[in-house]
Specification:
The complex is a heterodimer of chains A (about 200) and B (about 475). In chain A, α3 links the parallel β3 and β4. Chain A is globular and about 60 Å long. With about 200 residues, chain A is α/β, with parallel strands linked by helices. Helix content of chain A is about 30%, strand content about 15%. Chain A has a 4-stranded antiparallel sheet with strand order 1-6-7-8, with no helix packed on it. Chain B is built from 16 helices and 18 strands. Chain B is globular and about 55 Å long. Chain B starts with a helix and ends in a 10-residue tail after the last helix. The chains are: A alpha/beta (about 200), B alpha/beta (about 475).
């Protein structure tokens, strides 16, 4: 599915300094019953965000009007657990275009890249600096520069580079997806398939 | 050049390599279910693309299906609709479909091996992280997202960078009452839930070669819980014996040719791994989890670890203990529980029911415990009946439900109520995993059985 191109994102952030945030927290299984990719943002972090009577839980960060932005900053090992792409959909659908953490679970990272959310892995110390400064100034801006693979806090003149492979970077910059790439090489695939033993 | 089992299977499936990018990997077997496939089929429709090799995809309904009254219409409208859409999509694209009520229906990772869809040396994917289960047969098997499901349907390939390689060696033999689930929970407790992220694991050593195929599936199933994409075990005579004469395994000459290939599937003596870890099988005891991720596990006789320093890790640790309403330094033994769940793609096979029955035989279910015993498939259900296990269960006051994923992820009505404790043989103890506010304690079928008859956390070795 097509997504918006990603070049440079300047935004304030939403802090979630909890480690091992798993995909069941990001989107609980009972909200996976849709047959279309629609409305998943409403249930992002559902059980941390709402009481069982659907009233908002006031001290959860998404319900705190002080914090806004298109960047979600999470603790170490973000997105562990299930392969449900619905987790990445819900992050995107809520309005985030970038998740920053010091460590990502594999499948969640791959899913993000496939749906147009940029996972940015920074060092644990830089992550701490980001958290500290969001708490000092909730409006502080982060600049995520994909062409230069650089995340910075312009006000503090601090920055750190991040990794992404050239192929995925090009996809994100242009809004391409893997399926188009694969469909284009169908002949090579069908040729290959003739010689597979199983 | 010396190569690993993983290299052999991966490299032979690479259609092309993209420089500073992923490999295009050919997929031999694709399994789909009702939850992670509908949007992929919608994608095909929007692109005007057909399924390239429908005979390489297999569909079963398992995630949201009820485990009672399966002969009646599914009451939950959203679930019923998802099931209907899977059936329609399978029919439209010529995909084999084992829906609710079909004699071969069951959990995707249980029925795949049962019917020989799972084979050594194959690449197997499914939109479910516990696809790693199939690695028990020497296959490369891993979970994928829905975009990738669409890729496989349309082109039979995924695009993934080749993971790094880790070997986990465990020699020695397991003590009495120590089961494959304990081995897996032990490894995860040592490595943490992120300890193998970026790696594909090969399990190696006496403990795994002595293990049954069911046990190997349990271990490989839990590979994802240490962050690994998957885990695998080299195929041996046990593997070949298990898959022989199954519906989808090759027969006659084709079997002989396949065997020639399968026998080459092992790591060469001098092959190099990016990381090697070893443990002593004798030091593993029955395990239990006390927190809200599978890495928070310990030997059942141990105390919940104490944490001193106040850093972000300890804040997450205490958030977790607070959710469970447990304190650091406490013992888990004797803690009251409310539910027992035996089942899931981790421990829903016949061997798991045999273990459970061993403990409960001649005892009664504790009054304070609600037990949900859910076979992984109809084949497992039939074996439970044929082997007389059902009679034992009934005598002890237990009931058997119908196959499905059930309370493992509580997408159907099998939800653990808020604040209640469940000893579960499934794979995840995340907050709310088994229902909003539920508290999950992961353990083996033996530990689950001991809790079911005593009503509290009990070392099963005291009941032998």
């Amino acid at each position: 599915m097509a997504y918006d191109k990603f070049k440079i994102l300047k935004s304030s952030c939403i802090p979630l300094p909890i480690e091992n945030i798993d995909t069941d927290q990001i989107i609980p299984a009972r909200f996976l019953k849709a047959i279309e990719r629609k409305g998943f943002g409403d249930n992002l972090f559902r059980d941390w965000r709402y009481n069982s009577d659907n009233s908002p839980i006031k001290d959860f960060v998404l319900n705190n009007p002080i914090y806004n932005g298109k960047i979600l900053v999470g603790g170490k090992n973000f997105g562990s657990g299930s392969s449900r792409e619905h987790a990445a959909w819900s992050v995107y659908d809520y309005g985030f275009r970038c998740v920053i953490s010091s460590f990502f679970a594999d499948i969640f990272r791959a899913n993000c890249l496939n749906v147009g959310v940029l996972p940015v892995q920074v060092s644990p110390s830089f992550l701490n600096i980001i958290f500290e400064n969001i708490y000092k100034n909730p409006n502080i801006q982060l600049n995520v520069d994909l062409p230069n693979q650089l995340v910075s806090i312009p006000d503090l003149k601090l920055s750190e580079s991040f990794n992404i492979n050239d192929y995925k970077k090009n996809n994100m910059l242009n809004g391409y997806d893997d399926i188009d790439y694969l469909i284009n090489m169908k002949e090579t695939i069908t040729e290959f398939a003739k010689n597979t033993p199983l | 050049m010396s190569t690993t089992l993983f290299d052999k299977v991966w490299d032979s499936h690479v259609v092309s390599k993209i420089s500073n990018g992923p490999d295009v990997l050919f997929i031999d077997r694709h399994m789909i279910h009702e939850v992670t496939s509908p949007v992929a089929f919608l994608g095909l429709k929007n692109r005007g693309v057909k399924v390239l090799y429908p005979e390489k995809t297999f569909a079963t309904a398992d995630h949201n299906t009820p485990t009672i009254n399966q002969h009646l219409p599914v009451l939950d409208k959203l679930s019923a609709n998802q099931l209907k859409v899977l059936e329609e999509n399978s029919e439209e694209h010529g995909i084999l479909y084992w829906g609710l009520g079909h004699e071969k229906n069951g959990i995707v990772h249980v029925v795949g091996p049962e019917y020989g869809i799972t084979q050594p040396g194959a690449t197997i994917v499914c939109g479910d992280s516990h696809t790693s289960t199939h690695g028990a047969f020497g296959a490369i098997a891993f979970g994928i997202g829905t975009s990738e499901v669409e890729m496989v349907l349309s082109t039979q390939c995924v695009m993934q960078p080749k993971p790094k390689k880790m070997r986990i060696t465990i020699n020695g033999s397991l003590g009495k009452g120590v089961s494959p689930k304990d081995v897996a929970l032990y490894i995860i407790s040592k490595l943490s839930t992120a300890g193998a992220t970026g790696y594909f694991v090969e399990y190696y050593g006496e403990v795994f070669s002595q293990m049954s195929m069911e046990g190997r599936m349990t271990v490989c199933n839990l590979s994802i819980e240490m962050g690994a994409r998957g885990g695998m075990i080299a195929p041996d005579d046990k593997t070949f014996e298990y898959i022989k004469e199954k519906e989808f395994t090759p027969k006659g000459d084709k079997w002989d040719r396949a065997m020639e290939y399968w026998k080459t599937l092992k790591t060469d003596p001098n092959a190099v791994f990016d990381k090697e870890i070893s443990f002593d099988g004798c030091s593993i005891t029955p395990m239990i989890t006390y927190g809200t991720n599978p890495g928070m596990g310990m030997g059942i006789l141990n105390d919940i670890p104490k944490v001193d320093d106040q850093n972000s890790a300890s804040k997450s640790y205490f958030k977790s203990l607070n959710y469970m309403n447990y304190d650091e330094g406490e013992s888990m033994l004797g803690k009251k529980i409310d539910f027992v769940f035996l089942g899931s793609c981790t421990n829903g096979r016949i061997e798991d029911f045999r273990d459970f029955a061993k403990i409960i035989k001649g005892r009664k279910k504790a009054n304070n415990v609600t037990a949900w015993l859910v076979p992984g498939s109809h084949q497992v259900e039939k074996a439970i009946i044929d082997e007389g296990i059902l009679a034992t269960l009934t005598e002890s006051g237990f009931e058997l439900r119908e196959p499905g994923c059930s309370a493992c992820l509580a997408m159907n009505d099998d939800k653990i109520p808020k604040g209640k404790y469940a000893v579960s043989t499934s794979n995840r103890n995340f907050e709310g995993r088994q229902g909003p506010g539920s508290r999950t304690i992961l353990a083996s079928p033996l530990v689950a059985a001991a809790a079911a008859v005593t009503g509290v956390i009990t070392d099963p070795r005291t009941l032998f």
